[in-house]
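Researcher: Can you fold this with adenosine-5'-diphosphate in place?
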Amino acid sequence: GGTLVMQVRVAMLGDHHVLLLAEDRTEARRLEAIRRDFVVNISHELKTPVGALALLSETVQDAADDPDAVRRFAGRMQTEAARLAALVQEVIQLSRLQVADPLVAATTIALTDVVHEAADRSRTTATGKGIEIDVGPVPRGAVVLGSHDLLVTAVRNLLDNAVAYSEPGTRVAVGTTLRPEADAVEVAVVDQGIGIPTEAQPRLFERFYRVDPARSRDTGGTGLGLSIVKHVVADHGGEVSVWSQLGHGSTFTVRLPLAPDALATTAPAAPTG
Ligand code: ADP
């Protein structure tokens, strides 16, 4: 909840009439606050790897005649550089979202393309880790309005997380289900991974939130992935939810409104005219 902020403009119409234009600025103020917070947070987040890199490069110089130490420090520099790269990549994704007007760019998107492209991209990492990604059948009527690239980004972030927080030899499944009664479609990403404690679940979609930074440090994550998912899904008029049991796995479900007429494509040809 917050205060309603109105912007009022006054125009004179002739000598005796005044026109008052009142515009609701609440949403603009809220976005501005989010942007400000984000700049503060990201500056803080970027400082850590940059500081570590500066320190490590000094240490490497000092250790020049100890090859083992050089190798060790160089490895840590690689980790920090990868984290920096991941942060920058996600900042770019987020800034695209904030300037994009999703309604302007909306086109008809078949979710089968989105789901398969996202799975193909995540498979490289998954296969390397001995995790299989199974894509279930995608109903023909699973069609939404929006941006193909943004939706691939969202599903891919969920898949990358499922892979990152699972053990080798487990499976990740993607299921797509029509919910005709709600004019919606759901894409569920199911893993058999480490799971998420109940008390952490409400905070997952906040920027930079990580359940256990120590535990997830080696995944190279940034804590931005799920906030990107939430933004993309919200921009498409949908929502994302989580179900998880610690030690057993997690399911992230994205629910999106179907494009108008989406279901007509699965129904037998209707008489026209
Ligand atoms: P990160 O870059 O750290 O993965 P995210 O915003 O994508 O950031 O996720 C936030 C946190 O939620 C992660 O750090 C992790 O602790 C937890 N998390 C996300 N997805 C899963 C999952 N499939 N299984 C277990 N934990 C998860």
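Model: Folded with adenosine-5'-diphosphate in place. The helical segments are 26-62, 67-99, 102-105, 111-128, 148-164, 213-216, 225-235.
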